[in-house]
Design a protein that fits this description.
It comes from Chlorogloeopsis fritschii PCC 6912. This protein has about 170 residues and is mainly α. Helix content is about 55%, strand content about 5%. A hairpin with a 7-residue loop joins β1 (about 145-150) and β2. The longest helix has 18 residues, at about 70-85.
């Protein structure tokens, strides 16, 4: 009995498994590859090239208003398909309209603003905020990176058990 040739997305899964990519990456790559094929009216990717990839990436930015990171994710999934599964090296210079990167910067509080917020807290909430700050002062930043709170039992006298993953505290 003859075994049927594997479908394209099954081949993609096989290569992803062979390369030990995560399950989430597998789901994401298959999603974008499927979208790419459907966008091109179910044409096989081996019959397409840079122009079709550019059209798809431009469609994502212009018609679907996806974020720049999503557009890059889609592009990388399609490039994976061509390079790793179909073994086609594309001379890809995507001149498509790219999604705009966010102009918003994350909000960072000044030292005075942080202290004003901490001053407004009391009891357990203030302790939970001050604890990492105190640990930096007493143990140093490198120790804080290796320290985890094993057990935090807050009672009237606040017993606290700190376990160090690598080091002396136990």
């Amino acid at each position: 009995m003859e075994q049927r040739p594997k479908k394209l997305l099954e081949q993609v899964q096989d290569v992803i498994h062979l390369k030990h990519y995560s399950y989430q990456t597998e789901k994401t790559y298959i999603y974008w590859i499927r979208r790419y094929i459907l966008f091109q009216n179910k044409r096989h990717p081996k019959d397409m090239g840079s122009a079709e990839i550019e059209a798809f990436v431009m469609h994502l930015a212009v018609n679907e208003n996806v974020a720049a990171s999503m557009q890059n994710q889609a592009l990388h999934a399609i490039l994976f398909l061509y390079r790793e599964v179909l073994k086609q090296d594309l001379d890809l210079k995507v001149d498509a309209v790219r999604a705009k990167k966010s102009k918003y910067l994350p909000t960072v509080l000044t030292k005075d603003e942080v202290f004003a917020i901490i001053k407004q807290l009391s009891g357990v909430h203030q302790l939970l905020i001050k604890l990492p700050l105190l640990m930096v002062i007493f143990f140093g930043m490198s120790s804080l990176l290796y320290t985890k709170l094993d057990e935090l039992t807050l009672t009237s006298n606040y017993p606290l058990h700190i376990q160090k993953i690598c080091g002396f505290y136990k």
